[in-house]
Design goal:
single chain, alpha/beta, seven-stranded mixed β-sheet, 12 helices, 12 strands, about 40% helix
Length: about 300
């Protein structure tokens, strides 16, 4: 997904001289071609993420279309004040591209976890928050992000992400994609959890339950219409995200459901507010926090039986 996004951006940069890329002492191999072709539009700021955001803001004020890239905790948490003041409040044309959502960098420990980023970025004035689910969506988003005016936070996976779509999707910011139309139970998923959602839907089908699956690739602006529509026709609504249970997709859906008086079953699947002392590969951590298809399936069945 990450490679596809920046390959597409590189292609766009051929005919758009306002595209600039800033990195913070990482991603060298990823940007070898971009740097070779557009050396005057590529800057390694070093381990100085706050400075990177300040420079991006300055370039944006000079009519440049700037992309800042780093690992999520360094890009979002370390430079949050600069993002808030320099970029978001001034509604500048800066795109923040973070890699390593959730437990992607699990072996590096908690310093590299990306568990609070969507909540932080969603809270900022003028900031759009978009999380593609597969490389095809990442390709679409690279093109859309260039045309988009204003700040945007883009949460990407690394490499080897599974393909969700058979064909190029009709990807629009703020408009969710229904991947499976069912009844009774609905799953809203974001990012890498969309693929997990597809697996859960398949398992539910084995129990003669035809569930609806919605790809909520845009957290902000939120597709409120699809949430209210699904809530009016489904008895159970579940959210799936590899992010802290608070402040992300589940919280956003909960707010819409509460405001519309939803009386059905609702549960958020995500990272709990209290972490255990586990360090390991991403799949190991996802299993520990019950974010595997099997665990989610079991918990959905249990929750619906209790209703």
């Amino acid at each position: 997904m990450r490679d596809t996004f920046f390959k597409t951006l590189e292609e766009l940069a051929q005919n758009n001289e306002d595209i600039y890329v800033l990195i913070a002492d990482l991603g060298f191999k990823l940007f070898d071609n971009f740097k070779a072709k557009f050396s005057d539009r590529f800057y390694d700021i070093g381990v100085a993420e706050a400075n990177m955001i300040g420079i991006a803001a300055g370039l944006s004020l000079c009519s440049k279309n700037v992309y800042c890239y780093s690992i999520i905790p360094f890009l979002v948490m370390r430079a949050f004040e600069q993002i808030r003041i320099d970029v978001a409040y001034d509604n500048l044309n800066v795109k923040l591209v973070g890699v390593g959502g959730g437990f992607t960098y699990g072996l590096e420990g908690i310093t590299h976890f990306g568990l609070e980023d969507m909540a932080l970025m969603k809270s900022l004035l003028n900031m759009s928050v978009v999380v593609p689910a597969d490389p095809l969506e990442a390709q679409c988003l690279a093109k859309i992000s260039y045309e988009h005016k204003g700040p945007m936070y883009i949460r990407l996976g690394r490499t080897g992400d599974p393909i969700i779509h058979d064909n190029m999707p009709d990807f629009k910011i703020g408009k969710a994609i229904i991947l499976n139309e069912g009844k009774g139970i609905a799953l809203f998923a974001i990012g890498n959890m969309v693929y997990v959602g597809k697996q859960v839907v398949g398992m539910l089908a084995g129990k003669n339950i035809n569930a609806t699956l919605i790809n909520m690739h845009t957290l902000k602006p939120l597709d409120v219409e699809i949430i209210t529509q699904i809530a009016s026709t489904h008895d159970g609504v579940f959210s799936l995200e590899e992010h802290n249970i608070n402040g992300g997709l589940g919280s956003a859906i909960a707010e819409v459901l509460a405001e519309n008086g939803y009386s059905g079953v609702f549960r958020r699947f995500g990272i709990p507010d209290k972490l255990n002392n586990f360090i390991g590969k991403a799949d190991f951590l996802r299993e520990k926090y019950e974010l595997t298809p099997e665990k989610i399936f079991d918990n959905i069945i249990k929750k619906m039986k209790e209703a």
